[in-house]
Amino acid sequence: MTMSSTRRATFAALVVALVALLAGAAVAITARVDRAASAVTASVDRPASVSSTHLAGTRVAAHDQLAVAVVAASERVSAGEGRAATTEAAKEVVGSRVAPNTAGGGGRVFTHFTDEAGATGITGTRPLAVGQSGEVGQLTFGKGNNPFLVGEGRIGVTDLGLDATPGQLNGIGVFGPRQQYGIQFSELDAWNSGVRVMGDLPSRNIYSIPGGCTITGTCTVTRLR
Amino acid sequence: MSDDIAKRITDLESRIARVQGDARACVQELFLDDGARYLVAQRLPALGSAVVPAIHDLLDDGDAPDEVRTLAAFVGFEVGDRDRSLNMLLDEVTAHSEFSPLAARRLASAGVPEAAGLILEALRGTDSKEVDSVVSYLEALYDLGVRLGAEDRRRLHEGGAWQVETALAQWHGATPGNDSP
Lengths: 225, 181
Description:
Strand content of chain A: 15-25%
Order of helices and strands of chain B: HHHHHHHHEHHE
Oligomer: heterodimer
Distance between the termini of chain A: 73 Å
Number of domains of chain B: 2
Helix content of chain A: 40-55%
Helix content of chain B: 55-70%
Strand content of chain B: under 5%
């Protein structure tokens, strides 16, 4: 009877110790995840121009770091421990599929489809991998080379989302390499930047903005193909 | 020497005829109903006035679809036809078609004053919630130096669209101008 009580007490102590060990490990893992997130947040909040490898105003590098940190941490954190939101964020950044519309702001979301040279020039980002997306605070457009119907020098944009099919993009005159990247901005950010999005043929998803304009706000760039 | 000139001119005429034939063939691409007519029309002005004879033939073709004739008029206007293409675009403004707002903007940006009354008529016939059309008409009127009168502004304000409100404030605010009647 006494022996049995002792064994039970020992067993209970072992269980308590094991639980404490597991809890400590969980706390440690959580702390590592939080440190990683804090480091990335600091990187995001710091002007990107601080780093010579990243162009000013972009958050793409920060997205990459967050993705790596969170994926690495999620491998050590079992499911159902309240970290689902963090790992979902990683999927958004590194996943092969992206949401149809990602720009913030208000009103409708418009997309300018372009090739790599256009995307890097307009957003100031470095080239992205397929499926990768980044947030930029400013879009700087050059002069368009579409001389007719949308007006001299204007830039073609569309209300089609990032999930537009190649056939749909062909239908609005976006061919081949220009289907690689989607640059998105909100209608409200455009208007607040003094840029009027004009519906050239809204029934066919064809809109335009003035060439040489700058849009400031919560804009995104995504490599689609 | 004169024989050389005659040969050069004859050769040149042959080449011009070939170019005109090519231009006509390019314009005929508008007839293909594969969803690419607008994209075809965008590219035809690069041919310059060489397309005008083919455009006029198309405008005269009563059997041609309305969309083809309208796009042909845009092309003709773009390459300098200020006669038949212009008249067709003026008609298009008040046709309440998908091309009406675009026709209004093109005529306004080209500074065609006789378009102003038609654009105002088109605006008054457009629901204030049709944001894209209304904003196009407001910009076109602004480009032509027309400022909306109080009654027109009131009607558009009632629609409540922020895009329209912004466009009204920017282009048709209290600045003295040539107010619409």
